[in-house]
Amino acid sequence: MSRHDWFRNTSWDPAIETAFFKKLARAKDKSQHLRIQASVLASHFPDVALRLLDQYFASGEHFDVAQAYVDRATAYLCLGQSASAVLAYEAALAREASHPHSQTQACLELPFLIAKERLSQHYDRAIALLEMHKNRLTFPVDRFRWNCALALIRSEQGDRRAAQQAARNALAASTEAHSGLRHQPRIGLVVAMDESLRKRLTEFAA
Question: Where are the domains of the chain?
Answer without folding.
Answer: 28-104, 106-206
